[in-house]
């Protein structure tokens, strides 16, 4: 039955005044039980429980009231009661949670974080990890700008098994931080995301790209796991001039994919660019270069420069299989390699020469070999090959030169036997060439021959016999019937000084018509006279005479000076038809100078490849510019500018780069070079003139700058600020 609320409360008050706390509590309990929503009485009862030391009952009473008030929207009163609870029980989780939520709802973020953090610590202390994680998740949501707690909340989601939700939160956090230009924090969020799911390529790509942008390559390499990602990091390092780190990154990629042929080629190119040819050779072979002629040619160079001649030769043959027109590039490469190693260079050249020989292109083969000889003199293997090509190709005009050069190389190497054999052949075929005689003499002296002159004379006599067309037995009979005449000295005076005086000083001792052609009838006690042979093209005269030769010039001179020829008792008339016929038969048509022949052939090869080389240099220059290597870029542009088609673009770009760097005088020189080349368009030419005028003005050359500005104004009309410049420079000129 209902109680008398007022009487009960008066009685409870009386009991309190009398110090009867337990009895007063009992009366308040009856009132609260009768009217549970009497919050004031309930609050008083809670206070009495607290005074009586009944903490649990006090907390229960305050919590009940606070929860009800919170539900009814009286949040301020509810918070006051929760604070009473926390004063009595600081680790009361319900009060901490409710107080924190109310504070968060009121925007009191510091109070909310304090309550919830205490709650998380309480749960963690009692071993409730999931409960603590749930509170950390809540902490991450109360303040959207608190990215540190939001990232911690994502980590807490992982503890709860909510990985997908955590990953989404981290992506969102990273995007927001990027918008606020807080890149390091954004990358930290992505890093956490990668740790959650390393298989998410999109997240990992964003993370690596972010680290590269910040030039934090250590972290970029740490999270790059695929070949493409590692190659991307390596390329970024290369562009920033950090080539050693780029190589190490590519090496990491090779650990990931050791059988990736494209990666090996990429790594080899990087090594090659750094000058590590031996290292590049380990990865750059013909087999792994596919069908790319450029790559195979790099493989040729790498293998040969590293001393792997067999592998280099195989790569060279594969290169020509892929690009049959590439023999010129291979020959040029061989000459470049020969500066380091003649053996390695010749291995590549030999492949090119074989290819030319297979097509019967003997002239090209000879020209390529001659170019190699020019760069690497006295290299015997290539000279032997040169002689072989001359023989196989019937290049008679080059044969003597090739043999002579080979003989000289043998002499320089101390190989007297080989030099002697070649020199003897040359003397027999060209006895009128004193250089051949001198080669034979040197070879004989090197062989310690006691009488070199006798051997030389025997060779000259052999030529006389081989040149004969008459009765060989008559010659043999003459040789057997009288002792051989001693050979004439090799350095005898000219024939005019050796004529035997007679009653008719102008008489000519010539061969009868029956004498074999090519051999004049001998004077008593003399050797057969040998008709002259052509001298090398470098000589001042067309012919040399041996010590026993007929002096044709004297014959013709005397003939012209006399109307008839009178012979002595030992002489006969000269049959000039025979002499002149032999002269015409033996004197070859004068060939083009040998050096000129090869020079023309080299020029022809150069013309065919010059444009390709120039374009490659221009492309390399642009890449070096992008990488920040301005000096290297300008050097490449200098090479590219040798081609007329690229001269304007190369010189104008070099001028602008130097101008940007402050090298004004140098930039002017480049601009002037560009101005002398045809511009692709009038607009580009006008831009160049403007740049040149600006550079001249900066250098203080106002007169030249004014002249160019006036020219530009005349051609282009109103162009940029040219009119103002003309006015300004004119005033400067007036003051000067």
Shape: elongated
- Amino- and carboxy-terminal Cα gap: 122 Å
For this structure, what is the CATH class of the domain at 596-735? Mainly Alpha
- The number of strands is 4
| Helix content bin | over 70%
What radius of gyration results from the CA coordinates? 52 Å
Annotation field: number of helices: 38
Average pLDDT, all residues: 75
CATH H-level superfamily title of the domain at 596-735:
Tetratricopeptide repeat domain
Summarize the main sheet.
Answer: 2 strands, antiparallel
As residue ranges, the low-confidence spans are 468-595
Tell me what the structure shows:
The termini are far apart. The strands form 2 sheets. The protein has a two-stranded antiparallel sheet with strand order 1-2. Residues 468-595 have low confidence and may be disordered. With 736 residues, it is mainly alpha-helical. Helices cover 72% and strands 1% of the residues. The chain has a domain at 596-735: Serine Threonine Protein Phosphatase 5, Tetratricopeptide repeat.
